[in-house]
Write a structure and sequence with these properties.
By secondary structure, the chain is α/β, with parallel strands linked by helices. The chain is built from 14 helices and 25 strands. The longest helix has 13 residues. Bound molecules: uridine-diphosphate-N-acetylglucosamine.
Length: about 425
Amino acid sequence: MQKLVIQGGKRLRGELDLQGAKNSALPILSASLLCDGESVFHNCPCLTDIYSALRILNSLGFKCSFSDNTATVKYNGICRSEIDGELMQEMRSSIIFLGAMLGRIKECTVSYPGGCELGSRPIDMHLDGFRKMGVDIREEYGKIICKVRDKIHGAKISLSFPSVGATENIILCAVLADGETVINNSAREPEICDLAGYLRKCGAKIKGDGESRIVINGVKKLNGCEYSIMPDRIAGATYLSATASTGGEIILKNACINAMESFTSMLESAGCSINTSGNTIYLRSGSCLKAIKNIKTMPYPGFPTDAQAILMASLLKAKGTSVFEENIFDCRYRHTDALIKMGADIQVIGKTAVVHGVKRLYGATVEATDLRGGAGVTIAGLSAEGTSIITGLNHIDRGYENFEKSLALLGADIKRTE
Ligand code: UD1
């Protein structure tokens, strides 16, 4: 079993190039399934989830390769209609292949994706959207079996919540459909715009991405293209937080400044000085951060749920009391047990977490129980006294490329051991 071993207390300082966005790359890889010819993706992060997505595409008949952050996906004239159960279990986001398979071959069979560490993650909005577009859906023995009655047709779909996954899946199903699809109350996340940007470059007709009403006009065919994946705003938030919590300074390059504003403004409230220029963020932090009273996770452009554990970890020693409200997932405070073990003072009541700043954190052996929670406990380890050992690295490796190497580059004393 691999572990991260951290000697805490080092001030982080240096420059870092940000990786490509996992949450953009996964739906875009799925979208490549809709295209004839070949797609070439630059700035594709080297992550276990990306390998899982490429394995799924391979198993469906596509020819894929990956090296030096460039992924290629080529259509070979076949697209199978069933994803193997084991592959589906490898990553929760595998459900994003549903819309694309329906779009291309009008049928698909998949099993329910793997259990999720963030609590229940229903897909009713995805399936309701497909039904409106002419898809018959049966659920049998843990499998979802989808078949198009006649043809996939455009539809007016109003989401009861701006779900990122449902918005993406409906876009994927609609780009090759007959007629116009309108998604009302669509998610506005930057990763949706990245997906739409790629599909447009392949020939799709999509308008309104980044807003609450997306309109898609189906086209007959899409052709693969060359595309560069946007930078990862959550990985960016992680390195900024890690630096802030150690009183350090960082030049973060290749960042998406606007997309990170709800996060960087929080770090400013905590007392960090932040300057931006082009796609570079410069952050300098003093020796003690200030608590933040009111951090509510919300759909974009609100504060991202993915950054909740990350910001919490950097505020554990802040002066005063910080209050978090988690509004997206009902089971997203699991990292607090590990943080408390390291000396943090946190009370969780329902969807609220109250963090009283403490003077010191102490190194401990703790487990990453999910991806962003794992990043959070690592951040706490960096600012704790003594040695921390983090296990459960399979979670962290789903979303961070060269995690410990990037932190070590900034001056952290962190190593991966067997
Ligand atoms: C969510 C986050 C996204 C993050 C990702 C990975 C939001 C709005 N979405 O995306 O930013 O990158 O997790 O951590 O912050 N829901 C239903 N029925 C559905 C679909 C969703 O009830 O069919 C509910 C979910 O249970 C959840 C909420 O809607 O409470 C948001 O879900 P959704 O945006 O779809 O989740 P992801 O796409 O996984």
